[in-house]
Design a protein that fits this description.
Blueprint lengths: L1 E2 L19 H11 L1 H11 L5 H24 L12 H28 L8 E4 L2 E4 L6 H13 L1 H5 L18 H34 L1 H7 L12 H36 L6 H20 L2 H11 L1 E2 L2 E2 H5 L10 H30 L1 H6 L13 H7 L13 E2 L1
Antiparallel strand pairs: 1-6, 2-3, 4-5
Helix pairs in contact: 1-4, 2-3, 4-7, 4-13, 7-13, 9-10, 9-11, 9-13, 11-13
């Protein structure tokens, strides 16, 4: 008998979309992270396995655990560990960060080139913290900012719109450490928005400085960025689904109460078929009630919600298989997807427009601004030092 381990890919998948999704990348690590628990479960259910097999399995578990711990070092500062270890959540958060990094890297590189022609201020204030966009992609600077946020997590968490605040107990999880990670992810998303707005302002200033050339070429005007209250919209969806779920659960409870009263009202001699029927209905409803959860219903409905025609599950990139499920984390994941995608999509509107004004940029000596637009997500990963391959081989385990 062969214990089938997942086939491990040795190279990172590379999304070719201008709005890369993370599901495939997260699954890449999840497939590895799930192996130790599956092997431990096998050992627990097969205590009589021979010693050689047990040794092989224990060595495999140790090898994978060491590999996953090593990722925190290799993918620092994006991969964050902590006292609450959950490799699958850590991988998820890391790839969310790295996608944000992509949406910061490209506009910052364009801004650097534009800054050689017109004066630009690269210092911005995010949540009261001054950030130099020219150093934000450096690991040491990110570690410094993360430390500042996590050391004062209550202060900065309170600055996040309430609609984005999770891990405070609403859906069963209260964790300051995860609040800190949530706060950092919000901070990074605000940086993406700052980069987008600053880039648009820089182009508008370029057009003013070289107005005669711009007017001669007759090119399309800069896009107007869409105003949309994502936080209010997404929270309204959650509140609606939460109410629907609570109403459904209350309806089951009311039916159970009535059926039990009906059963009690039957005398011993007259219960017969009526009593059996009521008992069957009670059993069905009790099973349905036990299997139903408010959080599960919210997650199921949220996945189908569309933002500008794109379902939230598609924004993530599809279903991510995991053996560690936390409902509050799953809800936050979908909320974060909506928030991040909208900011990234706004940036992409500007990129589409920039491609249409290449003749203007060439005429004013800034044709090089087009170069960062050719960078793919994996190009940026390599540029910022993310390992693109892994060194892990798994033995074949046979009984």
């Amino acid at each position: 008998m062969v214990i089938q381990l997942p086939e491990i890919k040795l190279e990172l998948p590379c999304p070719d979309s201008l709005l890369p999704t993370k599901a495939e990348l997260v699954q890449f690590y999840n497939d590895i992270a799930m192996i130790p628990s599956k092997l431990k479960a096998y050992l627990a259910s097969n205590p009589d396995s021979d010693e050689e097999l047990k040794l092989k399995i224990e060595e495999t578990i140790k090898k994978i655990e060491e590999f996953m711990e090593q990722q925190e070092v290799l993918l620092s500062p994006w991969w964050q560990g902590g006292t609450v270890r959950n490799w699958q959540k850590e991988a998820n958060d890391a790839w969310s960060e790295l996608i944000d990094e992509f949406h910061i890297y490209v506009p910052v590189k364009m801004l650097e080139l534009i800054g050689e022609v017109i004066p630009l201020n690269f210092t911005v204030s995010v949540m009261g913290i001054e950030v130099d966009l020219l150093t934000i992609l450096e690991k040491d600077e990110q570690e410094r900012l993360k430390l500042e946020i996590t050391e004062k997590v209550d202060l900065y968490y309170a600055m996040i719109p309430e609609e984005y605040q999770y891990y405070k107990g609403e859906f069963g999880v209260e964790c300051d450490e995860w609040k800190g990670k949530l706060t950092w992810s919000y901070f990074k998303n605000e940086l993406v928005k700052w980069c987008t707005n600053l880039l648009l302002s820089a182009f508008e200033e370029l057009i003013d400085v070289f107005k005669e050339i711009w007017d001669t070429l007759g090119l399309p005007s800069p896009p107007t960025l869409l105003e949309f209250d994502v936080e209010t919209w997404i929270r309204a969806q959650i509140d609606q689904f939460k109410q629907e779920a609570e109403d459904f659960a209350k309806d089951i409870e009311d039916k159970l109460t009535q059926l039990k009263e009906d059963l009690d009202s039957l005398s011993g001699d007259s219960q017969g078929d009526n009593g059996n029927f009521i008992k069957e209905e009670i059993a069905k409803l009790e099973k349905e009630f036990a299997e139903f959860s408010v959080e599960g219903y919210i997650i199921e409905q949220l996945r189908e919600v569309s933002l500008f025609g794109v379902p939230l599950l598609d924004i993530i990139g599809g279903e991510i298989e995991t053996n560690v499920e936390c409902p509050e984390d799953q809800i936050n994941e979908l909320v974060r997807a909506a928030r991040d995608w909208f900011a990234q999509w706004q940036k992409e509107l500007i990129n589409v427009w920039i491609k249409k004004i290449e003749s203007f940029l060439s005429a004013i000596g800034l044709g090089s601004v087009m170069e960062p637009l050719t960078l793919t997500f994996c190009d940026v990963l390599e540029l910022i030092g993310v390992p693109m391959t892994i060194d892990l081989s798994l033995p074949e385990l046979t009984v």
